[in-house]
Design brief:
heterodimer, A: 568 residues, alpha/beta, three-stranded antiparallel beta sheet, 14% strand, elongated, B: 0% strand, ion transport (chain A), electron transport (chain A)
């Protein structure tokens, strides 16, 4: 059992450890270089080892800023998912964890930024102090370099009669540094889970401050205030000898005045690629926005669910994928993700939207979900659709047995899947790898059943017509029931069809006993690979993950539960 | 952005600013930079801000996720009444606290962040938001035996409900209302 968990999680752990390893390698390598490099010896005399801390964290920052845009380039990820040759199974599952990786890299940026800022703080103070009248020795002499026309300076602060804040605000590096730190902090404080759940729009809009972040980052090093000795000067001026013979600098031929130059900015080289890629990503989104989307049907379901059927040219989807929808009349900047609920075989695509926040409520209102009267087709607001983007459910057909578990509105990806199964069943000639599907739906009230019950009913009939009644086994769990309902249900218990849904398989009341369910599945399919697909809240996800680990056997030929979770 | 309570974001921003002020203050004091006494001030101001901002206020709509262990600080913050629940006062307090730290390089970032937090609090105050403490509800002890219904008083076979509702008629008919039932035929206990 433990072995299976290790196998399931190992790829994630390996990727995280590799990322950490690269960070540590870059940090330590750069640190040691700056601590030992001859051309920076004189800089180190003034600054000490805070120079190395600042530069090492800067390299790590460059690395992480390069990585941060990649996990959210959805079209790139879909492209990678589509190239099936190298992205099968466990690698595909890693692509589902893109948001986790984005957050991890963000934490890396925050930590390195803290080190970088604190180190440069000390550096500025040291530079300032070494210009003071009390400073003496090599540091003072080095700071005075650059006052005559044939000398290049080392110390960017030229006089003591200034304060460090003025120096900060009069250099490119200082101003851009302050700006990008502020941008980073604003992004991080508006991205906490609390804020994201309370107001997605605030999180979304504030996150766009990253544009200022990247522009500032690119020009941050333009001032070239990190200065080291030039190569020519090193040839003429032997630092190991001359550092102890300060008095001889002007006079002896062995120690001509050292010349310095600034390090050229390198951040732009790291981030150019991903920025261009992300810019292409947004251009693709904009282009898709321009494409016409025709709304063919609007259905308003009870419990505040709005169903939209749409058509778009060249739109191809797979079950379980999602699209981003924008409604310019509500908000011209927001794109919201929704899972597709139609099957690929249909000539339209549909989404089911629940009114759960500002934007969705406005959308339901705009489509006349609340009013009694029907809306004219020409008065419906225009929609833009980007996608479809890949998600875990496309893997369902690759397992011989699949367990699909959904709670509440999380059933939407599985609606598309079941419809697809329905259509493929009609064709009935194709031989599938998939032999059995277990479907669990946990729902609070029967009102939400309505739009899905029809689908299950038609599936049930079609399956029995084709003689494949045992292909799909579904279990519906009603978790919100009261005594009146219980009486009613008990009264009709002996009838053939369920009294609430009208389906042949009875509804269960209360929450499922997962141990019991997994045990049953494990007994029925002793040595198969079982794909477990879940869409719902985190708490239940943890329970199901635990069940998967518990009931997977350590024997590689035994039963294995592979867990996949859908999330936005 | 109708649903956003600006105070929520201001709270996160102010808490972050407090931490940044503390960090900058520690570096300035430990490094003995020029005007390091401002660093000491920043540490004190940062601690005060963190303590003030740690307990989250209750949202007017929906449930609020409490921060770990915030109930102790909630009690303290509640004591100050309008000084802490009014966001105008908080906005000006933060603005005032941030000014001295702006004169020291190490804490200038903290100043900028705190100023931003102060302006978001001002916006929240203009929109009429205020800080309300999250009260923990006292746990209701389940009444022992509250759900146990009284068992039926007569043994089976019991007369139907209509007969049970009219004790006066039963007595008139001579059937005993309660008490042990007399079996017409003798009953023997057969133990196998």
């Amino acid at each position: 059992m433990m072995g299976c968990w290790i196998l399931n999680e190992s790829l994630s752990i390996i990727l995280v450890l590799s990322w950490l390893g690269v960070n540590l390698y870059l940090f330590i390598d750069t640190f040691c270089w700056y601590e030992e490099e001859e051309s920076f010896l004189y800089t180190r005399v003034i600054l000490g080892s805070t120079l190395a801390w600042a530069r090492a964290s800067a390299v790590c920052l460059n690395f992480n800023c390069m990585l941060i845009l990649l996990p959210i380039s959805r079209n790139l990820l879909s492209l990678m998912r589509g190239t099936s040759s190298c992205f099968r199974g466990p690698w595909r599952r890693q692509l589902d964890k893109n948001l986790k990786f984005h957050k991890l890299v963000a934490y890396g940026i925050a930590m390195n930024a803290t080190i970088h800022i604190l180190a440069h703080l000390c550096n500025l103070e040291h530079y300032h102090w070494s210009q003071s009248p009390e400073a003496e020795g090599l540091a003072a002499a080095l700071s005075k370099l650059g006052n005559t026309p044939d000398e290049t300076y080392l110390n960017p602060i030229r006089t003591f009669h200034t304060n460090t804040i003025t120096e900060l605000l009069t250099t490119v590096a200082g101003i851009t540094g302050l700006l990008i730190s502020l941008a980073l902090i604003l992004i991080m404080t508006s991205s906490t889970e609390f804020i994201r759940q309370a107001s997605y729009e605030l999180f979304w809009y504030t996150h766009h401050v990253f544009i200022i972040f990247f522009i500032g980052l690119a020009i941050h090093g333009a001032g070239r205030i990190v200065r080291g000795q030039t190569a020519e000067s090193l040839l003429l001026h032997n630092v190991t000898f001359c550092r102890d013979h300060l008095a001889e600098w002007q006079t002896a031929a062995r120690c001509p005045v050292p010349q310095f130059s600034g390090k050229e900015p390198s951040a732009w080289k790291w981030v150019l690629g991903p920025v261009v890629l992300y810019a292409c990503e947004r251009i693709i989104r904009f282009w898709r926005f321009q494409q016409e989307v025709v709304i063919t049907k609007v259905v308003s379901h009870p419990s505040g669910v709005l169903e939209l059927h749409m058509k778009k040219r060249d739109f191809k989807m797979a079950p379980g994928q999602y699209v981003l929808i924008q409604c310019p009349s509500i908000s011209s900047l927001e794109w919201h993700p929704f899972t597709l609920t139609s099957a690929p075989q249909e000539d339209f695509f549909s989404v089911h939207i629940r009114a759960a926040g500002d934007w969705t409520e406005a959308l339901c209102k705009a489509f006349g979900a609340e009013g009694p009267a029907l809306k004219e087709p020409w008065s419906l607001p225009r929609l833009a659709v980007d996608g479809p983007f890949g998600a875990a459910l496309t893997d369902v057909f690759h397992y011989p047995v699949s367990m699909c578990i959904a709670t509440g509105i999380g059933v939407t990806p599985f609606a598309a899947l079941l419809k697809s199964i329905w259509y493929q069943c009609c064709e009935s000639q194709t031989q599938w790898k998939l032999c059995k599907v277990y479907f669990y739906w946990i729902c609070r009230d029967p009102g939400a059943f309505e739009w899905f019950a029809d689908l299950l009913l038609s599936l049930e009939t079609r399956m029995s017509e084709q003689g494949k009644t045992h292909f799909l086994s579904y279990h519906i769990f009603l978790t919100g029931w009261d005594e009146n309902q219980a009486f009613h249900i008990a009264l009709h218990w002996d009838e053939n069809t369920d009294v609430i849904t009208g389906l042949r398989q009875k509804t269960f009341y209360g929450r499922p006993n997962w141990n019991h369910e997994f045990r049953q599945v494990a007994y029925s399919h002793p040595s198969s690979n079982i794909g477990v697909f879940f869409c719902g809240p985190k708490a239940l996800s943890k329970i199901i993950q635990r069940m998967c680990r518990l009931y997977s056997s350590a024997d590689p030929r035994g039963i294995h539960f592979h867990y996949n979770r859908e999330s936005f | 952005m109708g649903q956003i309570e600006w105070a929520m974001w201001a709270n996160e921003q102010a808490l972050a600013s407090g931490l940044i002020l503390i960090t900058g203050g520690i570096v300035a004091t430990a490094g003995q930079f020029a005007q390091w006494y401002l660093g000491a001030y920043s540490i004190a101001a940062g601690v005060l801000i963190c303590l003030l901002e740690y307990p989250r206020g209750k949202r007017s709509k929906g449930s609020t996720m409490e921060r770990c262990g915030q109930k102790y600080l909630t009690r303290v913050v509640k004591v100050f009444g309008p000084l802490t629940s009014n966001y105008y006062i908080r906005a000006f307090l933060h603005l005032g606290l941030s000014v001295p730290a702006g004169f020291l390089l190490a804490t200038i970032l903290g100043t900028a962040c705190l100023a931003i937090a102060s302006s978001i609090y001002l916006l929240a105050a203009i929109r009429g938001e205020k800080w309300t403490p999250i009260e923990t509800k006292p746990k209701e002890r389940p009444q022992v035996g509250g759900t146990i219904k009284q068992p039926p008083s007569n043994p089976p076979p019991r007369p139907p409900a209509e007969a049970r509702k009219k004790p006066s008629e039963e007595e008139a008919a001579g059937v005993p209302a309660g008490g042990p039932h007399e079996n017409p035929t003798p009953v023997t206990d057969e133990v196998v």
